[in-house]
Design brief:
- The structure is a single chain.
- With 343 residues, this protein is mainly beta.
- The protein has one domain (2-342): Lipocalin (Beta Barrel), CATH 2.40.128.130.
- The chain is 11% helix and 52% strand.
- The strands form two sheets. It has a twelve-stranded antiparallel barrel. Strands 10-13-14 form a three-stranded antiparallel sheet, with no helix packed on it.
- The radius of gyration is 21 Å and the shape is elongated.
- Residues 1-27 have low confidence and may be disordered.
């Protein structure tokens, strides 16, 4: 098992380096949203109800980068003086390798393997005698928990799909990351959770010629994991409007080049509302008041189909609601990007 984890670490770190080079021009809320790739056009962060054809295999790589409004050292010192347990995080990068397979024309299964990287974690500490400190804990990174999922499309017409989504997040991620001083990071800052977390939800698509509407609800039932910690149930809610801004037939008709092979199959522009509600963290059955809350992003984006089998996409999430519990690092923005291919 140790050799397997070491091998995974090497592969993921190589991939992380490649992604950082690719996105180098891009530069509690420090958690990523689910990433399940099924190769569908249109929405980016909203889970699609479209089904994969039987026998088709989709492989995708996605990245979510969240820039957080870190809490100042002065504020952490003030909070440490009154023994308020608060931590600050600068950035979160979540990289996921996703794979899905169409068992039938209505039933797909897949898995998602994430790599999680939190940078510049700081904590409020009480140094005694009413003196507070801002302690730099360091960075926490490693393999996250694998999620297995299934999607069943139980209704389909010419323009509408409705599907049921269910799965489980398994305790496969790293839970032994340590701070600079050698003590374990708290469970909330570990790449893995140590818990078995089942999830279920529903997704919906409706299209009218070039316009499409998608939405989904997903609820995760979080159980107690590492360090006797329950990270809190999660409710994700999303809605997206997409518009097919480009079809190759238009250019062919205009230039009469129908014999030319297509490079760009389509371009979809997308506008989404992406919500993420999390319950407060419980440690030994005691709630942490500086965790949990609701974040709602307004997310414009674009998805491009290439060569009939490839899809690339990117989205910018701007938080319009940051209703977080207690004192936390609030997200400034979120960038989502990825690529997938169908076999």
């Amino acid at each position: 098992m140790k050799l397997f984890k070491k091998y995974l670490h090497i592969l993921v770190r190589l991939y992380l380096t490649a992604m950082l080079i690719h996105f180098s021009h891009l530069v509690s809320a420090d958690h990523a949203s689910p990433s399940f790739e099924t190769g569908s056009a249109g929405a980016i962060n909203t889970l699609s109800a479209s089904a994969m054809p039987k026998g088709k295999l989709v492989f995708g790589i996605s990245a979510q980068f969240i820039e957080l409004d870190d809490i100042s050292s002065e504020r952490l010192e003030e909070l440490g003086a009154i023994s308020e347990e608060v931590h600050s995080t600068d950035t979160l990068l979540n990289l996921s390798a996703n794979i899905a397979y169409g068992l039938t024309d209505n039933l797909s299964v897949g898995l998602s393997l994430p790599y999680v990287d939190r940078q510049n974690i700081s904590e409020a500490e009480n140094a005694g005698a009413g003196v507070g400190e801002a302690e730099l804990a360091g960075d926490s990174s490693g393999i996250g928990d694998i999620s297995l999922f299934g999607q069943y499309r139980f209704y389909s017409s010419n323009s509408m799909d409705i599907a049921f989504i269910a799965g489980v997040k398994m305790p496969t991620g790293d839970t032994d990351e340590k701070e600079l001083e050698g003590k374990l990071f708290e469970a909330e800052q570990q790449p893995g959770s140590g818990s078995w977390d089942p999830f279920a939800g529903i997704s919906f698509n409706q299209s009218w010629n070039r316009i499409g509407i998608s939405s989904n609800l997903l609820y995760t039932f979080v159980t107690e994991g590492t360090q006797n910690t329950d990270l809190g149930n999660i409710f994700n809610y999303n809605i997206a409007v997409s518009y097919r801004a480009y079809l190759p037939e238009e250019e062919h008709e205009h230039h009469n080049h129908e014999h030319e092979s297509k490079i760009v199959d389509y371009i979809d522009v997308v506008l989404e509302l992406n919500g993420d509600y999390r319950e407060q963290v419980e440690i030994n059955d005691v709630e942490d008041s500086n965790t949990g809350g609701n974040t709602l992003y307004l997310s414009p984006g674009v998805r491009i189909g290439l060569g009939q089998t490839w899809s690339i996409y990117t989205s910018l999430g701007i938080p319009i609601v940051n209703d977080l519990g207690g004192i936390q690092s609030e997200p400034d923005y979120r960038i989502t990007a990825g690529i997938s291919t169908t076999f």
